[in-house]
Amino acid sequence: MQPFLGYLWCFFRQFIQAPSGRKRFNVLGALHATTLEVVTFTNDTYINSRSVARLMCKIAVEFSDLPISLVMDNASYQRCYFVRDLATALGIEIIFLPPYSPNLNLIERLWKFVKKKALYSEYYETFPDFTQAISDCIANTHGSYKKELSSLLTLNFQTFENVNL
User: Coil, strand or helix: which one is 93?
Assistant: First the structure.
């Protein structure tokens, strides 16, 4: 619940109000690459392999009629045997990104967008207001924000085979 600055330069010194204390709002999500539909699992404690398992079960139920491939980074709670075995049991293919390449994961682009829309230069009086703003932004990804996200969440990645230097 810390403030994100929208602008760094101004004529007058301004103080941004921020709540005291530390509360967590974790959002673990999966983005459908073509429809921009987002499936999320949220909590206010920690993300671990059980959280990933809950998200995977939710995805398996929502998209039971489609083949599912999940692109994941190299977090230890995603690479553990528990998650891999569950993915196999659910018929989910897991694709792990190379280390230090979050730019290849579309969900990271979505998180940046959510921060920009819901958090930058905003103060939320209460923790429920804070969590609601984030949840509302995520809920509108394949609705009112679809046009804005269409250029940000593309599947066009540059490969190094045909690069002109």
Answer: strand
Element holding 70 (H helix, E strand): strand 68-72
Is the Cα torsion angle 43, 45, 47, 49 positive or negative in sign?
Answer: negative
For residue 124, count other CB atoms closer than 10 A to its CB.
19
- pLDDT tens per residue, the chain (165 residues)? 555 555 556 666 666 666 656 788 999 999 888 788 889 999 988 899 999 999 999 999 999 999 999 999 888 999 999 999 999 999 999 999 888 887 788 888 888 889 888 888 778 888 899 899 999 999 888 788 888 887 777 766 655 666 565
| Token pair 């690479």 in the structure block, residue | 79
In the chain the domains, ranked by start, together with CATH numbers, are 26-152 (3.30.420.10)
Is pTM beyond 0.90? Reply is no
